[in-house]
Structure formats: C-alpha cells, structure tokens
Design brief:
The chain is an all-alpha fold. It contains 26 helices and no strands. Helix 13 runs antiparallel to helix 14 and helix 20 runs antiparallel to helix 21.
Length: 458
C-alpha cells in the first residue's frame, strides 16, 4: 500500500480552515504527520487559524500553549492582529486581566505595539466594565501612537456605558480639537444615547450637524435609534417621516425598523396598519424575523387575543423560522395574568416537544402566576421541577407559597415544599421563620418538629 503523502505547510492551513471542531483542529495542528522525519515547519497563517479557533471556543489554556510555541519560532514574528484577536477573545469571556496581560506581553513576541492593539484593549476593558482602566490606558497612549477615530469612538462608547454622557461629549470635543474627524460611528453612538434618554431634539440637531459640517450621512443604525426614540415618546408621525427619509436616501430598511414601528402600532391600537407594514416588509424583500413575530405575539397578548398569538407561533414555524424562548415566555406570562394558568402550564410542558426547552424565566413566570392565583398544589409541582433542573425561584414567590400553605393549614404539602427548597438550598431565614411561626400558631406543635427536621436535614 502506498504511504500517504505528508501534509505540507500550505495543506495544514487549508485543513485547519475546514475543521469546525476546535479539539480536532488542535490535534491536527499538533500532529500534522503521523510519522514525521523532521520537525514540522508551521506557517504564521496556521498559528493564526488555530489560535482563532481555540479563542472562539474559550479553550484558553490550549490557546496559551500555542502562543508559547509561537513565541519560540525564529523564522518569523507574529503580526499585531493576532494579539488584537486574543484580546477580543478574553473580552468576550469577561477576562479583562488576561486581556491586559496579553497587551503587555506583545513585545515579548518581537512584535511592535501600535494604536491598533491599544484600541483592542480599550474596547475589551470597556466591554468588561473596567472604565477606570480605560482611562488609565488612554492617558499613556503616547507610548503606542496617536489616537485615531477608532480610539475616540471606543472612549465615547465607554463613557456612555458608564452613564456619563457629559464625559462622552467632552471626548467628542477633544476629538475635534485634535483634528480627528468624527465618522458615522461617532455620531451614531452619541445619537443612540440621546435617543435612549428621549432627548430627541438634541438628536435631530446632531443629525443635522453631522451632515452639514462633516458631510457624514446617517446610516441605518442612526435612523433606527431615532425611530425607536420617537416611538418611545409617542411621536409616530415623525417616526414614519424618518422611515420615508430612509427610503429616499436609498437605505435598506431592516427588520429592526419595521419591528419597532409594528410594536408601537399595536400599542396605539392601529393593528391594521401594523399588518400593512408586515406586508410591506415582504414586498421590499425584508423578511420578518423572530423579533418581528415576537412583537406581534406581545401585541396580541396585550389584547388578550391568545388565539391570534398561537397562530403567529404556528406561522413562524411555517415560514421556516424557529420561535425562541421569548415567544413562549410572553404567552405564558400573559396567560398567567388572565388566570389561564392551566393553558400556561400546558404550553410550558409542550415547549420541549416544539424544540424549545423552558428556561428559568419560563418556570419563574408560571410559578409566580400559580402563586398569584393561589394554585398552591400546582405551584408546588412546578417548584419541584424547576429546582430539579437547577433553576432558582424568586424569593417573594417562595414566601407567598409557604404563607398560602400555612394559611390553608396544608402541612403535608408544606413539608413537601420545604423539602424541595431544602434540596435546592433555597430556604431563606424569613421563610424558615414563617413556616415555624405559622405551624406553631395553629397549635400544630408536633408538625413544627417535622418542619424543623426538614430544614436541618442535609
């Protein structure tokens, strides 16, 4: 049998690019040839590919091993973009200290740090909420280069995230003083924050300023932010005017714009116009997504039209989309509010069959609804199931259930509930006090000793 041809450096990169499983990709990288006669000569591209796969999979120990191997290469030096990616991987995992360490280690790899890697670090620290470290690193930016528009955009977003819009405006002013031209991201961030705080007059002024002074045209993000803001204050006519302006400017309307408008039309009971927008979406080639359908489900639920809400669920599936857990949670919550807890329970039980397992919100919503309607037996059953699945009920609802059982004098079910809570380590001090007090108050002292046994048993 003819021996297989050894894998070349170029071939390894191709195979790594095709391999979706990061563990198998690592095995391939470490052992490209089964019987090597000499050390394999890895390319920088193969290092980049395996580091990216491991970083995306959060296999950081393995990724660091590959970085150490890369550091020992003498044929080439790694490029800065590799470390920018590593920093972003740590940011996604909420590991800001690891991102910092990576940035400071870059020179050890014979790689020069520039404003690019600093921008990656600033963005990582901002996303992790380390705003004081963002400030510290920016103050030393002269060591790595001159701040560019990307740097200032990251700082503006960090200020907005930290809740200091005034600081964001100060950074914007400094940006212009330094001669750095703001771009659509800069204006988009500021306008988004203004709209979030319903400062629509200022948002419109800034939109006009960006066009007249800097010649920067608003993009879809800017328009979407403003439309959402206008809908939030009930200015529907202005919101629709902006939608028409987007069409005139030949910007493609996305599902976010349509979903926002459909939602507010349902709120003001202009349902027919909402359906008109849905048809318009289809006509212009903008497919309704899960968010769009969830908006409609929520609208029908507010009208207590559950039959229509269920029809939307069926339509989502018929259109080839998959309803998400939010779709079901909205209906479960609305059913519970109307006292239709039996239908809500049936829907929750049906979710796995529909390919959507209930989450903690699903169980909490149903459990809260059952407690509100004093369906304590059903609530106890749901409680046991959610604790078994590792979900924690709301403390107030637990107390409502325990109090209700005490008031009813249903000590047998009370002990069952306390046993379930004990298994999940979810008994608070006030719950304990309530159970003992109510049992003793009803002169059930023999039962109170059982309650104590339940609470103290491991």
């Amino acid at each position: 049998m003819k021996p297989s041809k050894p894998i070349s450096t170029f071939r390894l990169s191709s195979l790594l690019r095709l391999q979706k499983d990061p563990t198998l990709a690592l095995q391939l990288f470490q052992n490209p040839n089964s019987n090597p006669t000499k050390p394999f000569r890895y390319s920088l591209l193969s290092y980049d590919l395996i580091i990216t796969k491991l970083g995306r999979a959060k296999m950081f120990d393995k990724m660091e091993q590959i970085l150490q191997q890369l550091n020992q290469e003498t044929r080439f030096s790694p490029t800065e973009i590799i470390f920018c990616n590593v920093i972003s991987f740590y940011a996604r995992a909420r590991l800001p200290d690891c991102a910092l360490q990576t940035f400071f280690r870059i020179p050890d790899f014979r790689c020069h740090r520039t404003v690019k890697s600093l921008n990656s670090l600033l963005d990582a620290l901002s996303k992790c909420g380390e705003f004081h470290k963002v400030r510290e690193m920016f103050l030393g930016i002269h060591k790595y280069g001159t701040p560019d528009a990307c740097t200032y955009n990251i700082l503006i977003k960090a200020c907005c995230r930290s809740g200091s819009f005034d600081d964001a405006c100060n950074v914007f002013d400094e940006m212009r003083r330094k001669g750095v031209c703001p771009n659509v991201v800069t204006f988009g961030t500021l306008i988004y924050q203004l709209c979030l705080n319903f400062k629509l007059k200022e948002a419109f002024k800034l939109k006009e300023y960006m066009v007249k002074v800097y010649g920067v045209k608003p993009n879809v993000f800017v328009y979407t932010s403003m439309i959402k803001g206008l809908c939030g204050i009930g200015e529907l006519s202005l919101a629709f005017s902006l939608k028409e302006e987007m069409v005139r400017n030949k910007l493609k309307l996305d599902s976010a714009v349509y979903s926002t408008l459909i939602s507010v039309l349902f709120e003001v009971e202009r349902k027919e116009e909402a359906f008109g927008l849905l048809e318009e979406m289809k006509d212009v080639g903008c497919k309704p997504d899960t968010v769009t359908y969830n908006v409609m489900i929520n609208g029908f639920c507010k009208e207590k039209n559950f039959e229509a809400a269920f029809r939307i669920l069926d339509e989502i599936v018929a259109k080839g989309y998959k309803p998400d857990v939010i779709s079901y949670n909205v209906i479960i919550g609305s059913l519970c509010k109307e006292g239709k807890w039996s239908e809500a329970r049936d829907l929750l039980e049906d979710m796995p069959r529909r390919g959507i397992p209930p989450d903690v919100v699903s169980y909490r919503t149903l459990f809260d609804g059952l407690c509100d309607w004093m369906q304590f037996k059903e609530a106890a059953f749901v409680l046991d199931e959610m604790i078994f699945k590792g979900f924690v009920p709301r403390h107030a609802s637990i107390n409502m259930l325990v109090d209700g059982l005490c008031q009813e004098g249903n000590m047998e079910l009370l002990l069952t509930v306390l046993d379930s809570l004990g298994k999940g380590n979810n008994i608070g001090v006030d719950t304990w006090k309530m159970a003992i007090f109510m049992v003793c108050k009803k002169d059930k002292l023999s039962n109170s000793s059982n309650v104590i046994d339940t609470l103290v048993m491991p």
